[in-house]
Write a structure and sequence with these properties.
The protein is mainly alpha-helical. About 75% of the residues lie in helices and about 0% in strands.
Length: about 250
């Protein structure tokens, strides 16, 4: 809704939009998977965690070891390995990667933006295998730059919108870098975006591990954790009741 209603778009606005798309898709897919895992445990079934903090990755390859692991595992076991995997030399391996990622894009939908999205990852993964070997802050920055672009392509309704949104990221058509409306939206939603970013990272897991190293705080933490989660559930429920109906994005696939 924020994106559709904005009249004075800017380069900064489109990057905020890219961040919002990334977080929205992550929480939608990850939340859906976590509910399936939780419901399975209620009935005695144990399913593996499908998302393992993908935004801490240092490369696109690592991202896909953490993101939607069940899908990646299926394509690896039933498409990539039967084709020959990496056992047939670099040339054939690259061909296999492109086949897998084109099919991964088509699995999400028959629209051209999904096909381009899949081939986009095929190019990045091949480039990493052939060229990029280093890790560190530069790798994280490179990863975040390209992953935000990927979610803009993925979230678009069609290829025309994807091209328009990508152009906005880089100021196509003389788009201003920032506008007053963009600053207004940034001030209005900065708190929510910051909270969402922290929730997408292992901040609470790290905090919990630090606290549990100090036995004196362990009982306090164990008592406060369910209260905090209950309070968070109440706040989220209030937001859902106050907003219009939004089905899971994953229902499209």
């Amino acid at each position: 809704m924020l994106f559709r209603n904005a009249e004075q778009k800017s380069v900064l606005f489109y990057w905020i939009y890219a961040l919002g798309c990334s977080l929205y898709i992550y929480f939608d897919f990850s939340g859906y998977s976590d509910m399936a895992v939780g419901l399975g445990r209620i009935f005695g079934f144990y399913f593996p965690e499908n998302f393992r903090y993908p935004f801490v990755s240092a490369s696109i390859t690592e991202f896909w070891r953490r993101w939607h692991r069940s899908l990646g595992t299926w394509f690896r076991d039933y498409v990539y390995i039967p084709l020959g995997g990496n056992r047939c030399g670099h040339g054939r391996q690259i061909v296999h990667i492109f086949i897998v990622w084109m099919l991964t894009g088509l699995w999400h939908g028959a629209e051209w933006n999904f096909v381009i999205w899949g081939l986009y990852f095929a190019v990045l993964i091949c480039a990493e295998k052939l060229l990029l070997k280093k890790e560190g802050i530069v790798s994280h920055m490179y990863f975040l730059f390209f992953i935000l672009i990927s979610f803009v392509i993925f979230h678009a309704q069609d290829m025309e919108q994807a091209v328009s949104d990508l152009g906005g990221l880089f100021g196509a058509g003389g788009l201003p870098v920032v506008t007053e409306e963009t600053l207004y939206y940034l001030r209005s939603y900065a708190g929510i975006l910051l909270f969402a970013v922290c929730a997408a990272l292992p901040c609470m897991r790290f905090l919990s591990a630090v606290i549990k190293k100090r036995p004196v705080y362990t009982k306090i933490w164990n008592g406060m954790e369910p209260i905090a989660l209950l309070g968070l559930m109440v706040v989220i429920s209030a937001y859902l009741v106050d907003s219009s109906f939004h089905p899971f994005l994953y229902f499209r696939f």
